[in-house]
Structure formats: C-alpha cells, structure tokens
Amino acid sequence: MNLDPIIMAMVSCIDMLDAAEPDEVEPSYAVKVQQVMGEYLQAIPPSDEPELRTMLLRIAGDVSEEEPTIAAYLRQWAGNLGE
Fold first, then answer.
1. Which of 39, 36, 77 shows the shortest CA–CA distance to 56?
2. What pTM does this model have?
3. Smallest Cα–Cα separation from 13: which of 34, 36, 39?
4. Mapped to the 3 state alphabet, what secondary structure does the chain carry?
5. pLDDT of residue 83
6. Longest dimension (CA), the chain
C-alpha cells in the first residue's frame, strides 16, 4: 500500500492549520486538532518507527523543491519519532 498520499494529506493539514489566520480558523481549535493528530501518531508502535522514519525522509526528499514547508514538517516528524 502506498501511504504517501495519506502522509502528505496529514502534513498538509497541519501546515494549513499553522498558517491559518485567526479569522480563518479559531487558534484554539487548530491547536486541539494538532494535539489529537499527535496523540494518534504516538500510538505508532516503536517497531514501526524505523520504517516510518525512512518513509518520511524519502517523501521529504521527493517534495522538497515543490513543497519546502511540507518537507520541513516531514523531517521534523521523522526526527521526533520515539520521543
């Protein structure tokens, strides 16, 4: 299964919430959505983290020219795995 589109959708959502102005998205709601996403992502088993890290860094490399902000989020996520 190709999970790249799902990962890109999630990271794009986070990026959009971060960039949203208060008149577009209530800031406290944006934070809550990001917290919920983070809670679910913390349920990733440690045994899957190396494969996920590799996937995130590969996707970041693939999109770095067209989507530098998304690539930065992917690299940050990869670096935070296991914390």
1. 77
2. 0.83
3. 34
4. CCCHHHHHHHHHHHHHHHHCCCCCCCHHHHHHHHHHHHHHHCCCCHHHHHHHHHHHHHHHHHHCCCCHHHHHHHHHHHHHCCC
5. 67
6. 41
